[in-house]
């Protein structure tokens, strides 16, 4: 290769890196302290948008990630991703989450390419599966955190009721919750107390809590607190009744989970078995599976594969609907 061409390409890449570094330095001038103060010193709408961001994510992110995150901040996509990460309590920025999806998709494609012996179709399917892995992880983290929060909610209400009967204000009772109870409920109410101490009304602070925790039981508690602040009444007695209702609901949910565990496990096994079997046959005996896709059998093989996929999905959904009992 020509030496001058190599020098020109190298110089162009170096100049591009220099320009990107200067732009990031100029745009990212705000310090960590300014970032923290900016969350609470500006308008309430800004607080509402940043309250959903994972705590500590901006401080731990790289300058490049912060630059791209600020570039697309406020878009519907980033708002949705930020809300999902906040509900899962994951310390990622939206741009880092998108980069993680791209990385897992690429890794899945490489693994699929080797496992499928160079098959582009197998690599494409593996890339799709890899792209959905972070999403499934976030959903699992959200469900796990929500389950822990719901299980702790009755203890939180008992602590608040005892505090109110002892003469505490609602803010002092919530502050006691943030000190005495374990995560995740202590962290969430610490955020609520922090926002209220910085001047945010209780209704807005509780609304931010509802954005981070999508719980029907918490919705009942927040509604009771807001109604009591509007019309008055004995909040301790109201929360005591709600606490009993939530405890009974948690107990019934536990019984239902135990009784339907076999049905849910059966749905996963039956749905995954044909898929895993086809993948194993594709790797071990590709000619046997590819018989469905040769030109002579393609008119019958492809509809059969589509029909099999639809039957697997419909059967899995049907079993999940049967074992899912709302209380």
Please render the helix and strand layout as text:
Elements: H1 3-27, H2 32-41, H3 44-51, H4 57-60, H5 63-71, H6 76-88, H7 94-115, H8 120-165, H9 170-180, H10 185-197, H11 202-212, H12 216-231, H13 235-259, H14 261-284, H15 286-290, H16 298-323
Helix pairs in contact: 2-3, 6-8, 7-8, 8-9, 8-13, 9-10, 10-11, 11-12, 12-13, 14-16
Number of helices: 16
- Kindly state the number of beta strands: 0
Number of domains: 3
CATH architecture of the largest domain: Up-down Bundle
Rg, alpha carbons: 26 Å
Reported by name, the CATH topology of the largest domain is Receptor-associated Protein
Largest sheet: none
Estimate what percentage of residues fall within beta strands.
Answer: under 5%
Helical residue percent band: over 70%
CATH class of the largest domain: Mainly Alpha
Structural class: mainly alpha
Instruction: State the oligomer.
Output: single chain
Poorly predicted ranges (pLDDT <50, ≥5 residues)? 26-53
